[in-house]
Design a protein that fits this description.
The complex is a heterodimer of chains A (432) and B (194).
Chain A (H helix, E strand, L loop, with lengths): L2 H10 L4 H5 L5 H17 L3 H14 L4 H25 L3 H9 L1 H34 L4 H17 L2 H12 L4 H8 L4 H9 L7 H14 L2 H14 L6 H29 L10 H5 L3 H4 L3 H32 L13 H20 L3 H27 L2 H4 L6 H28 L4
Helix pairs in contact in A: 3-14, 4-12, 4-14, 4-19, 5-11, 5-12, 5-13, 5-14, 5-19, 5-21, 6-7, 6-17, 7-8, 7-17, 7-18, 7-19, 8-17, 8-18, 9-17, 10-14, 12-19, 12-21, 13-17, 17-18, 19-21
Chain B lengths: L8 H13 L13 E6 L2 E8 L2 H12 L8 E9 L9 E9 L2 H14 L6 E5 L4 H7 L5 H9 L3 E8 H14 L4 E4 L3 E2 L5
Parallel strand pairs in B: 2-3
Antiparallel strand pairs in B: 1-2, 4-6, 4-7, 4-8, 5-6
The chains are: A mainly alpha (432), B alpha+beta (194).
Chain lengths: 432, 194
Amino acid sequence: MTEPQSRARRAVRPLSARELTKQKLSLPQLLRAAGPGLITGGADNDPAGIATYSIVGASVGFAQNWLLLISTPMLIVIQQMSAKVANVTKSDLATLLRRTFGARVATPAVLLMVIANVITMGADLLAMGAAFELLTGVKFIYWVVPLAAVMAIITIFTDYKLLSKYLLWLVAVFATYILAAFLSRPDWGAVLRSTLVPQVTFSPDYFLGAVGLLGTTITPYLFFWQASGEIEERRGVQGISRRNVDISAGMVWSNLTAFSIIVATGTVLYSHHSTIKTAADAARALEPFAGKYATVLFAVGIIGAGLLAIPVLAASAAFGVAGLAGWRRGLGRHAKNAPQFYVVIGLAFLVAMELAVSSVNPIKALFYSQVLDGLIAPVLVILLLILTSSRKLMGDFVNGWTTKVIGCAAAAVMVLADVAVVYQVATKGLPG
Amino acid sequence: MKGVQPPDRRLIDAWWEAVLAGQVDETHPVHGDDVHVSIKHGVLHLAGELASREAREDLLKQARRYVGRGIDDVDATHLRFTNRRDKPGILDQTLIAAFPNRDVAELARKYLVELRHIEPKKAEIIDSGQEAAARRLVPEDFMDEIRKAFKSSQVVLILRVDEVDAFKIREMLAEDTRSVWTVSTPPVPALSSR
């Protein structure tokens, strides 16, 4: 073929769907796209996440900072895959799992997510109770039932999407951890070394922390929530470039906050051999910034994070079950139009409340709920990778090599951490 | 929304009359479940999220016609519209839904086109045994599903729609009709943009 002929052929080649939707975003467009993500990213750190990062910082210092660093691109890629698969297939994750892998695979995968969500809800209720105890002195357990009732009513009967825009500002107080991390005067050389050079200690403490940290960062309910959000908002594939910027900004911000929590707790608590047994211990990490107001700031942040996260946990569980069963679903729908969906939300609150009331230690409950998330997440990451790598389902929007490599690395790291924690706990037992 | 034509005004008027009579759970003839209505102390409260600013303005205008004729005021504080940036006419998507028989499929097609006023680029009902007809409309990868449906004596309704409208139409097919299953094929360049 002569050069002009090949040029002519190239010239008439029709553009693919992906090429037609590819957008080069200018700087102002990039900033506009990143804005909502920054706010949402702050909300990704729910009370269980704050507790887990605090415990990791207090128990192993900065030793797992490297894990947070490598989990950032993994989290971004996984959330982008969740958004993309929903926008391309116009289906939520549970429906897709059922249609692609059948009920035998989809049902256990979704049920594991539902179980982890309900346990996390229970732990988050305890955390909110502990936050109210810090503010009022009234024992945390007395707050659990009223909090669960109020939040169930908010989720079922009010416009949660509208409300969440205001609640996000309560969670913004966690940005103060960034200042607290600086003001606590850590050894930045040690922080940098532990962030860039992986260190592994073969102990149950270390691996429980690692699985908890991965589980609270790459958390299963976020995959379902992201996909269901795309469906409810009907965003479509034309906005994928903007969504990717939005997701990346949010996840980087979320992990930057997590990093700061670990640095602050590592400096304030680990270096002084203090452990976290109560919410008041965890709040001490904010002392370098807030002084005597650290407890109030921490409590306000936990209450905001709980108000924001618990309805999301309940709703993503309900999205999963409704997607499996083929029921009408959506927080934008009136309860009368999607009764089963809202019944599942109500049940999730009831069970979570029961778990919270019967649990004895809020901090332990928060931490172990995230370990459970870490054990479940790789299964869902692998299923998500298979879905988004299917040319039949995704067409021109199938995963590229970078996405595949980072996605597979995420699954591999999580599986390795899970195997290691099971081995460590089986041979050495749970830490005290 | 491109692909959606203005409905018969009589249907909308009938809906308003039903709502004002107390049937606030009636589904809106155009916006479906996207609009929630309640009447409290003579005030008509509109809530939900509509596809465009124009749709919101239009609904509000209709509601205000009834002030003094059954209601005292209209509150649309919680009636939002989606600020969509995606443009119609760039991508198409094919939706496939299986039905127990041709009559049910025909009812679903009528519901979508005549009642919900969607305007698909293609809408065909294919009976079992007409594999060749289905192959012309859907990618080969999805023929397995169609063959399985045909083996169970089901018929399929195949709609080619604008990608921008595909979310809503797929939801209607899956939730508002008696479809056995519904799938969408990946987006492809629109017929007009080729």
